[in-house]
Amino acid sequence: MLLLRPMPLLKRLSPFDHPDWIFEIKWDGFRALLYSEKNEARLVPRNGNTFKSFPGLCDGLARDLRGRRCVLDGEILCLDSHGKPQFRDLLFHRAEPVFYAFDILWDEHATSDEEEEMRRFRNGEDTRYLPLTDRKQRLRTVVPKQGERLLYCDHVDGDGEGLFRLACENDLEGIVAKCKSEPYLPDHVNWLKIRNRGYSQWQGREELFERERASDPEFELWNGCAVACDESDTALADVY
Length: 240
Known about the structure:
Shape: globular
Helix content: 25-40%
CATH superfamily: DNA ligase/mRNA capping enzyme
Mean pLDDT: 86
Strand content: 25-35%
Number of helices: 7
Distance between the termini: 39 Å
């Protein structure tokens, strides 16, 4: 299976409403692509290396996907009893992580009642060129309703300001805006992250990374992923 590139996020300062866009919660964890092949799963961050600190998570994801060969985009995170992400629990392995999937890039087992469609999907399908709404519908069929470790990242239509307000009221990192009709092309970025500037878990994070750099054998990989996800994003002027 080919190594694919994750979609970068552009920065935007303020939320907006628009009927042609969907809005998702921005989960605070580690971004990764999930590669599922037969009875195994692996998680690959933006730099292309494979995470080795999540063997239990990968085993659970393989069970949830039951051999379905696919590539999903999502976030590794730990949730507390209220369903809120806790970044330090993830960093220090204090809780069992889950994978929130928000997109599907490749899928082997597309299903259809039409014989011609089944022949078309026999060798798998590169779903990146489908509109986002079609990919989200496909993803919903892949993620089990009661998975062990694999969760579906839902969205709201059009109401970015309302979702951002809820994110801030619940001390979440922010939201992500995505155009409904766009394909998944990392060279033509159309995903916008809008951060909650009052998010409490950002306080002291740089000092935390510096202090823990030598304590975890995989910390350089984790830190590099987090830094890349932040520093490589480009500012975007308001367009609505």
